[in-house]
Amino acid sequence: MDLSGKVAIITGSGRGLGLAYGKELARNGAAVVINDIDRASADGAVAEIVAAGGRAVAVVTPVGTSEAAGELVATAVETFGRLDVLVTNAGILRDKVVWKMTDEDFDAVIDVHLRGTFTCVREAVLRFREQGGGGRIICIGSPAGQRGNFGQTNYSAAKAGIVGMVRTWAMELQRAGITVNAVCPVAATAMTETIPFLAPHIESMKRGEPLPAIIRRDVGMGTPEDAAGVIAFLASDAAADITGQALSIGGDRLALWSHPQLTATDFHDGGWSAEDIAACWGQTFAGSIESVGEEFPEEVMPK
């Protein structure tokens, strides 16, 4: 995955998954713009990449506004001369059940995840089109956006919206040679420590103990570094023909999410009344109802 001469922006990359992405892109030759809201984290990430022989610069700003997106792209161009890859990773959590979630809880998550992705992608696309030669956009989604998750109305909505935007952008940008894909990682980070059945395994990892195979394979969760290879792959020439897709990665598992498809269809001349629907529902549609939430092996669930 030779990324020599490429320049990448990774939002939310001072620690966790974002830092793992930045280090992997730099290891493969890309110059990287590290972004975080915490100066110490951003500077520490840059120092780590530079110490390993890479090139990096920090931009300390919260994503969401057009001004922040403009600063990120301008820094990439002014420091390294161009922009080739954007990874939109920045995110926050404000988990609550819907009847306790405030407007502020909802807006904060939507602003960082959904609006932050939109504004950064828009700014990067303007640069890509000005440069010519295409580009790579990698938006970070989540299984919560694909399946839903208890207590995460705001986060699930934002992540589902990101994948929806990815599909649209893939169509809009194809002629310009710009690929757009989503990655839905599962890794041991501060954000997954809030999931009760994963917390003990994350604590074990902190003590240097390996994750059991059932977690790495069946749950598909591992370290942030386990999720970084797919970012370098999608940024590379090897992925030039891949666009509009949602990939899942974690631990030992790599998977491809399907797009929503019609699962059952029937027709009724003259349209459907409520009575018509009730009469056919059991035979035609009931067997095709899909579950919600992620389904995990019983062995890892709390007793």
From TrEMBL:
Matches recorded under InterPro entries: KR_dom, NAD(P)-bd_dom_sf, Peroxisomal_Beta-Oxidation, Sc_DH/Rdtase_CS, SDR_fam
Span of domain Ketoreductase: 6-194
PROSITE patterns linked to this entry: ADH_SHORT
Entry's Gene Ontology molecular function annotations: oxidoreductase activity
Keyword Oxidoreductase: yes
Keywords: Oxidoreductase
Top-rank taxon, per record: Bacteria
UniProt family annotation: Belongs to the short-chain dehydrogenases/reductases (SDR) family.
The protein's name in its UniProt record: Ketoreductase domain-containing protein
Organism whose genome encodes this protein: Saccharopolyspora antimicrobica
